[in-house]
Design a protein that fits this description.
By secondary structure, this protein is α+β, with helices and mostly antiparallel strands. The chain has helices at residues 5-15, 71-77; strands spanning 21-24, 33-37, 43-47, 61-64. It has 2 helices and 4 strands. The strands form 2 sheets. It has a two-stranded antiparallel sheet with strand order 1-4. The protein starts with a helix and ends in a 19-residue tail after the last helix.
Length: 96
């Protein structure tokens, strides 16, 4: 059986500093990170919004210091949510 402790520890170290967030597989959405239970009692970084990433793969999360843009993560953090709704009819200010 493989000891997963070193893998879990290195991943915790990567995301352990304040202000380090994550993107999934070079995605554009920036997520907040928290620690969650993995296997054999090890804790590893996970997305605060709990968005699935098809199995835990230590290479799926890439660290970033960019601001969190995930609306679910922002709600869980108690911050303002970001809305990027496009106007339905061009410039909505001219309606009415």
């Amino acid at each position: 059986m493989t000891d997963i402790g070193p893998l879990a520890a290195s991943t915790r170290a990567t995301f352990g500093s304040p202000g380090v967030h994550a993107v999934v597989r070079r995605g554009r959405t920036v997520h907040a990170v928290s620690l969650g239970q993995w296997v054999e009692g090890e804790e590893v970084p996970e997305l605060l919004c709990h968005t699935g990433i098809a199995g835990w793969d230590p290479t799926a999360l890439e660290p970033t210091r960019a601001d969190v843009t995930c609306a679910r993560c922002l709600r869980r953090l108690g911050g303002p949510s970001i809305s990027r709704q496009l106007p339905l009819f061009g410039d909505d200010d001219q309606l009415g």
